[in-house]
Amino acid sequence: MTNSVEYKGNDKLLFGIILGVLAFWLFAQTTLNINVDMAKDLNMDVSMMNIAVSITALFSGIFIVVFGGLADKIGRMKLIRIGFYFSITGSLLVGLTPVGGAAAAVLILGRIFQGLSAAAIMPASLALVKAYWQGKERQRAISLWSMGSWGGSGFAALFGGLMVNVGWRWIFFSAAALAVIGLIMIKGTPKVRPKEKNITKMIMPVFLHLCWQ
């Protein structure tokens, strides 16, 4: 499908994107709170676990610039879908991390995929809101997106605490499930290419402020 100026964003698309944002917070926020339990369960050195925790932020920070330019070239919807695939892959890798010698490699790989998903989904989705919503509808869409970000942080902390007794792996399985649902909800959205150059890069400061402060 090609870009259509007549297409208007709807709640199905918006909430599908928000689910991708919530999936980001589930693995970003909860890992900070449960990394000690994860290291213990996986028989992993604490220093290696610290690397696994921080590497997501590293890769998302590095690739946000790359993906920002890529979104302007191949289309934001395509990049958002790629981000969802990264999110699902990363969450499943973390959730299925084996105990023992291979734990560090699998966990770090999963965290890298999660970092790439954040770099793809977060800024491109904000740019998509600018393209497919106008006026008051755009203000509402941005407000809901922001609630998914700020509220997602609190939700992830609460959810992580509730899931400790069930098992930390289910946090990441839940994140993968949210990403799958979000991917289904955004299905059928036409491609959109920017009318203005580098719109994705223009909203990067917003992304950084929301996610890393």
UniProtKB/TrEMBL annotation:
Residues 13-213 form the Major facilitator superfamily (MFS) profile domain. Pfam families: MFS_1 (PF07690). It is found in: Membrane. The keyword Transport applies. GO terms for cellular component: membrane. It is a multi-pass membrane protein. Keywords: Membrane, Transmembrane, Transmembrane helix, Transport. One of its GO terms (molecular function) is transmembrane transporter activity. The keyword Membrane applies. It comes from the Bacteria. The chain crosses the membrane at residues 12-28, 48-70, 82-106, 112-129, 141-162, 168-186. PANTHER family: MAJOR FACILITATOR SUPERFAMILY MULTIDRUG TRANSPORTER MFSC. This is MFS transporter, DHA2 family, multidrug resistance protein. It comes from Draconibacterium orientale. The lineage of its organism: Bacteria, Pseudomonadati, Bacteroidota, Bacteroidia, Marinilabiliales.
